[in-house]
Protein 1
Amino acid sequence: MVDMMSLEEMAKQELKKLESENRLWKEHRLESPASSWSVVDGTKQLMLCTNDYLGLANNEEMKKASISSTEAYGVGSGAVRVISGTMSIHKQLEEELAAFKRRPASITLQSGYVTNFGVLSTLLDEDDLVLSDELNHGSIIDGIRMSRCEKVVYKHNDMDSLAEALDRANPKGKMLIVTDAVFSMEGDIAPLPGIAKLAKKYGAITYVDDAHGDGVLGENGRGAVNHFGLEGKIDIEMGTFSKAFGSVGGYIAAGEYFCEMLRNKVRAFLLSGSHPPSVAAANLESIRYVQKNPKLLKILWSNTRYFKKGLRSLGFDTGKSETPITPIMIGDSGAAQKMADELFKEGVFVIPIVFPMVPKGAARIRTIVNARHTESDLDFALGKLEKVGRRLHII
Ligand SMILES: *Cc1c(COP(=O)(O)O)cnc(C)c1O
């Protein structure tokens, strides 16, 4: 064992460095359910920072499904999936999820992070080449790193850059193009038709992370691939239950043999405990609920349009966003942090997005409206944004 004091000293230095770079994490405490308004650190806040697009995190039907599953099957599955931790509810979820995504099969894992990390590192090896959008999520980057395959990063959403990279590529093994469907810091959508076309031309596998597309885009929230009419034209669809679906869990929807191969090879599936029945039941209810309640999606989008229009007419720069994720571009990390702090004092909870989540000088406030916000909630937020934005000379 090293001297405990020296370990503490090392950690303290690390924290100081993060603080000097405006990267120190401030933990806020949620003291009520995640909702359109929540109690945070003892104060009532209008929530513009959750990923709970449809308000399912605290939805009555979701809660009922989760509670009744706990009563029937207990709080834990008892093992990893491949030992005895596969319950009927896990299989039922995978079947209905595959049908929802209109794919032959699906496999669920503990989280979206675990899914990208585990599946990409399983699928790719040293002989393979991956082509990855420069703004892809960290879980994709980590999965690629773990695989030790060759990686080419193409310019964000730039099909000329992707085509160039494909043209130059000559791997011993397979080629895979991987992209977020909706980019979590920009709110823009990947040009999936262009990607599918290039993939076909060059014989590359396509992998789409639909974390922010599921429940938000497409018919009844079926996601980005449905939105573009590309069902059956993307090889591997990945998603999460931690965003619009209100709970937790990651998944792959793809071909039957492919999912069966993952069941036998992804180490998180083999070595880490499966979801409690309450989680699987909530996830199952979420995909049923979005299909039964298309109105929620309509409200989400009318709120999105209303809020974006409001922001732009106040003079804020909202970047290239096309979805409910709307960044307010600030530039300087310190200024973005200050703006978030001031808004919090005014009762609006947003988070600043700073380096290394976005490039240096591209700091921003990220806002996400949800289907539970009312027009007066959004007016409240716009009023506070105007007040703070003017005070800090951002508008
Ligand atoms: C949130 C997110 C993930 C991770 O999902 P979790 O289920 O929260 O682990 C993966 N990819 C993208 C693009 C995300 O936004």
Protein 2
Amino acid sequence: MQLIDLRSDTVTQPTDAMRQAMARAETGDDVYGDDPTVRLLESTLAERLGMAAGMFVPSGTMSNLLALMAHCERGDEYIVGQQAHTYKYEGGGAAVLGSIQPQPIEMEADGTLSFERIRAAIKPDDFHFARTRLLALENTMQGKVLPTDYLAAARAFAHEHGLALHLDGARLFNAAVKSGCEAQDIAQHFDSVSVCLSKSLGAPVGSVLCGDWALIDRARRLRKMVGGGMRQSGILAAAGLYALEHHVERLAEDHEHARLLGEGLREAGYEVEPVQTNMVYVQIGERIQALAAFCSERGIRLIPSARLRLVTHLDVSGEMIRQVIAAFIEFARA
Ligand SMILES: *Cc1c(COP(=O)(O)O)cnc(C)c1O
């Protein structure tokens, strides 16, 4: 039975061509700055984002952590969405390892943070308070693309309040492909941007943090400190370079598959949230364990949750989407 894994876009297997690119990679000791493939990945992605410098790191979690720590000192504060990955899904790293106080804010339905709410949370310059230093956004946010005019407004808002602006762009390229713009058009509003290579781009490992040279220099020192300095990591960077060249435009296919899946499930009577990129959210409620077991018997893997998230990616075909819809229809009738 062929497995259809909709848990996340992190489950993709490196393709044969990607493995060949990895096998051929020129390498060196990257802690000494000697790995040409890592350097090429860093400069390629930075250039594509219109930023000065990039740094290859093992994970998106580390990339975000180093960005927050490069922007903030101990006792500083960053403002972030209540459901944002950096706040909710990274083990509280900014607080634990950076002594940075998070100030979470209720999010709007479109994935943005309201400037009114942010303004109310910014602390006055007074020694009773942590120093509010940074605003962190996420794009895509649970599959939603932040509106372009919101990003420009966030830039102006951050400037007005003396805040730096970080983007958790784990799926930045999904946002760009969906908007029909260049990644740079989104990245231009931010002081730092973290991009995952191991999500929808299909590489096995790695993220890149981009920003200006001063920020990346600070982050590089911190990367060594947290144990993220890697040696012949060009093997991994080669997969990232391959993904940037071959797996960006094809994200449109994942989005189309997600749209078809959402449409099919809606027609079958499921309550489906509007689909923008490669994530489909479905309200299943208390039947979720039964559904998960039903799907599992048919080779469909999902993470059981009353608000079910289904993610399309490189290893999900149109035929698989049809099979998933058929299984959900069968379950609804059972
Ligand atoms: C997955 C993810 C991360 C973290 O990436 P890891 O490589 O899993 O540590 C950060 N932000 C968002 C939005 C993500 O989806």
